[in-house]
Hints:
Elements: H1 16-33, H2 49-57, H3 61-77, H4 79-85, H5 94-119, H6 128-135, H7 154-171, H8 174-195, H9 206-222, H10 224-227, H11 232-244, H12 253-269, H13 277-284, H14 286-304, H15 312-360
Helix pairs in contact: 1-2, 1-3, 1-13, 1-14, 3-4, 3-9, 3-12, 5-7, 5-14, 5-15, 7-8, 7-9, 8-9, 9-12, 11-12, 14-15
Amino acid sequence: MDRAADGPGRDVGRLIRLDGLRGLAACGVAFLYHAQQLFLPGMHGNEPRLYDWFHDWGWTLVDLFFLISGYIFAHVYLGENAEEGGQPLTRGGLLDFAVARFARLYPLHLLTLLVCAALFFTAPGNTAIAFGAHLMMLQAFVQPVAHTFNGPSWSISVEVICYVLFALGAAGGRRTLRLVTAFAIVGALAHFVLQGRAGGPWVGDGLPRGLLGFFLGQVMWHCRARLSQASSALLVCMLAFGLALDMGGRSSLLPLTLYAWPAVLLLSLRAPFMGSAPMQWLGDRSYGIYLIHMPVLQLFQSRLGELPGKGTTQLVVIAAFAGTVLILADLCYRLVEQPSRRAIRRTWLRRRRNIGAGMASPV
Length: 363
């Protein structure tokens, strides 16, 4: 859910069409998958098949987030884009990278954590240990995962691990990054082949999902010239194949992550609409949509209970829920995310200049 181009001096070559895709994916998770919690179980089944698919598999859009992040990080921090943006990822740039990631992720994460702690402090999973794990961005590793404070934020902590591995690998040079990428992808594939189970989501799949998607996204970026030659018809076939392939007793995340979501990413890069102003607006607020929607959903549940919603009732409730989330995400983007990001960057750049001036001054 992070946008790598938000780093210091990094708005060069921004892939705005993937920002739009990230916004759509966030809405899919929030408004088509998690929103079903507002209604009594079994109250869907007569909707269009695509809508019904989101009820069962919308959670896998998180794997699309991982893939997008890996592709964008490679685009921004590797190769010619890094040089145009000012500084590729080297050992000397690791602190700048860490500050940029902190400025992008932590302020809104902390705000939503404190709000959830204030509103839902009596929930069984909201313990002091869980709160500490959330503070340290380790929420994916405290039980019950996805059921403490702001549940969907588990994927943010998995992304942080991917960022750390990526940064250390890139700072070590191309060969080191290739090794890190290979180990991450092979290790994740081994997990799903040996331990993957049908259905889901499963708690033990969190880190392998992140590693597979994020580092596969980087491989796609490196192969972007060859992938650009694939016809759109072939990509549509890949998408259909990934969505339809039944793995039997094995995890269906593999065909989705290896075929469907890469096809969606490549098709989005070819679609002008994905870079339109509405999609950019949605992409800028995708992080807020993702972190804000669950607290809002829980408040809706506490007020309305589980509704026997079908047809018009369901549409009205989901529209009200989506509207509330989008308004709050916009407010958080303008009043929390952007100001805090700028403040953290200014503070860091000032400190870095002071350190440099102190080192340059005569003894």
